[in-house]
Amino acid sequence: MFGATGLRVAALYTTLFALSVVALGIVTLFSIRQALSEQFDARIRSESAALVQEYRSEGVHGVIDAIREHDSTPGALDFGLQGPDGRPLAGRLGAARTAAGWSLQHDGPRSGEAIRMFSVALPNGYKLMVGDEEERVEALDGAVVRGFGVALAGVVILGVAGGYALSRDVHRRLAAISGTAEAIIDGDLARRVPVRGSDDDLDRLALTFNRMLDRIAGLMESLRQVSSDVAHDLRTPLTRLRQRLEAGLADPRDRGAALEGALSDLDSILDTFAALLRIAQIESGARRAAFRPCDLAALALTVTEAFAPSAEDNHQSLGLIAEGPVWVDGDAELLTQMLVNLVENALRHAGPRARITVTAVRLGRAPVLSVKDDGPGVPEADRERLFDRFYRLERSRSTPGSGLGLALVAAVAKLHGAEVALLSAEPGLEARVSFPEAA
Amino acid sequence: MKLLIVEDDREAASYLKRALSEAGHAVDYAAAGRDGLMLAAAEPYDVIILDRMLPEIDGLAILRTIRASGVKTPVLLLTALGGIDDRVEGLEAGADDYLVKPFAFAELQARVNALARRPPTQDLRVELVVADLKLDLLKRTVTRAGRRIELQPREFQILEYLLRHAGRVVTRTMLLESVWDFHFDPKTNIVETHMSRLRGKVDRGHGRELIHTVRGAGYVLREPD
Lengths: 439, 225
Prior knowledge:
The complex is a heterodimer of chains A (439) and B (225). Chain A is α+β, with helices and mostly antiparallel strands and 439 residues long. Chain A has helices at 4-71, 135-185, 201-250, 255-283, 296-313, 332-349, 380-383, 405-415, and strands at residues 78-82, 88-90, 101-105, 115-121, 127-133, 292-295, 317-322, 327-330, 355-363, 366-373, 419-424, 429-434. Helix content of chain A is 57%, strand content 16%. The radius of gyration of chain A is 50 Å and the shape is rod-shaped. The model of chain A has no long low-confidence stretch (mean pLDDT 84). Chain B folds into two domains: 2-116, Response regulator (Rossmann fold, 3-Layer(aba) Sandwich), CATH 3.40.50; 127-221, Winged helix-like DNA-binding domain superfamily/Winged helix DNA-binding domain (Arc Repressor Mutant, subunit A, Orthogonal Bundle). In chain B, a hairpin with a 4-residue loop joins strand 7 (133-136) and strand 8. Chain B has 225 residues and is an alpha/beta fold. The radius of gyration of chain B is 19 Å and the shape is elongated. The model of chain B has no long low-confidence stretch (mean pLDDT 89). Chain B has helices spanning 10-22, 33-42, 59-68, 84-93, 105-116, 153-164, 172-180, 190-202; strands spanning 2-6, 26-30, 47-51, 75-79, 97-100, 127-130, 133-136, 141-144, 147-149, 170-171, 211-214, 218-221. The longest helix of chain B is centred in the N-terminal third of the chain and has 13 residues, at 10-22. Chain B contains eight helices and twelve strands. Classes of the chains: A alpha+beta (439), B alpha/beta (225). The A-B interface holds A 270-271, 273-274, 276-278, 280-282, 286-287, 290, 302, 305-307, 309-310, 312-313, 333-334, 336-337, 340, 344, 347-348, 400-401, 405 and B 81-85, 88, 100, 102, 152-154, 180-190, 193-194, 197.
């Protein structure tokens, strides 16, 4: 059996429609009755006015002739005329006892039917009565009630049938959504809710649902990627650590060196862990609450100053181009770490005698932070992948580094709504972080 | 010195306790937040080493409680790996310093020493002197044996930090945090390169060296023996 929700809605609407048909019927009935009564009364009035006119021009015999003529015409009204002594002179209503004005008589001339009657006093004590059967109005009531009865039946049948069809459709589509959810619970993560393309509420719900599923699938995929990367990239240093410890155990003379080596291996493993956790925290977006205006130029000055002696020792040069202040809304600590990672990358990979330039400027209204070197550069095909966790160029495999530096850069940039790109500086490489335009 | 360790990992705590005792400190130890809170409020300690994550009462809650009850003992907060917000939260709750787990024992020892003999918060000295080395905080000048030494701004800051902690070990991380405000670990040896330049200017050409490297720990500036 299909969904109770659809059925309940259909029942509710059918009931509401039926009630409105009944209400409409009642209103119509009373309006028709009212209109008919007024119409009948008007006819009675005009007939009596005509007879009063007849009396004035032709006298009482003229009236009697007119009444007799009416009485022989089928479908005409009923009339009556009484003399000054109350004697009936003519017409079917001649015997009626009534005061002047409107009244309802219950002893009609044919079979005691109800008569709506208007009586008017003529000069010289004569009395004229004009009336009509009340039943004619009531007969019309029946027709109205029958008409609305048929309409009501139609509404109920249409309501029930339509509700049934509608709720079966809604149920089918909801069942498709819950079926998809069930399939996903059972492990089929690739399932998606079918979309009709009708752009109605349920279709939009299905689209949102599918987008949510895509997002979850994306997160799952990156999580899977990270765990396999972690497993792969930590296996090497962990293996080395184990070997060192075993060597130290085996040969007491080497123990000091082995332990020291083991400690340094362990520190690099912990660094990798710390970087991974940090990236995960940044990606969760929780740091955005702590955003404050930061001056990229001042930040770039601190970092270039800090690294200039190291560059000098490597026979490299580290310069700064800054038009300060360059304000961005952000997390100073993370932005500093981002720039440090970019500068360290350049120091490590640009080679001896490289010229490295840090730039903090505003291009138009958009703040830009860039680190450029004139080293060997990176082939275009590899540039995007450098932002992936643990990705390292073949030629850098032997140099120290966790392969997480640029992944952290990408995470910090994304947190700040900034675009980060690796460009060819011809020769060399430029890492450019473009922040959104200041509001 | 009299120290209190509040740490729920018994093995880690007993290692710390032994190592600190061997370094000549009297060490109390509480495994649970409640005991830690009671000891911290009742006993006069020189430094409290407090784990951020504790069962029952959280480390930060203990910190806030003892600060609210007027205990001014310096607190070194131990925070978890990768927790970027822990430092700010800890300092706001009243910690005097923090250390990310896992840490080198030398780092902990250096920080405990730095905390315990911390000068009053308002250090009004205008001249820092060790042997024949003088640093004038107002004029921003440094002289050794009366001869002027020209320093870069960062070198001046490093020397000032070493002089303020004269006789005590200063670690690489302590310098990164106080001089550069770097709360992460750069892969480049920026402390070493700055230090070697500073030593070149301060000690070269003078018979007696004032700045010494402490292997596996950091640096110390002290009077020659």
